[in-house]
Fold this sequence. Notes:
Elements: E1 2-8, H1 12-27, E2 31-38, H2 45-51, E3 55-57, H3 62-68, E4 73-76, E5 82-83, H4 87-97, E6 102-106, H5 114-119, E7 129-132, H6 133-139, H7 146-151, E8 156-163, H8 165-170
Parallel strand pairs: 1-2, 1-4, 2-3, 6-8
Antiparallel strand pairs: 4-7, 5-8
Helix pairs in contact: 1-2
Amino acid sequence: MLTVLMECLDQEPELAQSLAVLVSGAVEGLVSDVVVLDRGSKDGTERVAEAAGCRFHSDWDLNQVLGSVRGEWLLLMEPGARPQFGWVDEIAEYMSMNRDPVRFSPSRHYRRPLLKRLIERAQPLETGVILSRNQALGLARADMKLSELARGVKSRRLASEMIPAWAARTLR
């Protein structure tokens, strides 16, 4: 089983886009729960999370959150990011045969402009990170952001692609 974790700050529409894609994983029995960590949103982020059945935390200790999740595996992703077709089957197969962390492949249709790719590093959660709960607990600190947790993880790549969160912001 997989627990999805997202950290939000005034990202109601982006969160809704990600949650809509995650429904297929829940229907297939892959996604056991979704946890939304909020950093003080003033929009409807909490309403969207609760309407979708997510656990919502506005004040949290990352170690406690990781200790309370249902899944043995975690998907850390940005609100607005969307895994693409085939992700459920590929992740289920990967989790059954591997223990190493893994990331999605970058979307071929949503690429940052060449100059930005040369100048700026990709964000740590741009293609998501899937790792075991035990690996995350070994790396996490109470006050750590999900992006900081993801930064320290060496990982493989899945064939499945993820549309990055920044692409969701361009659709508004």
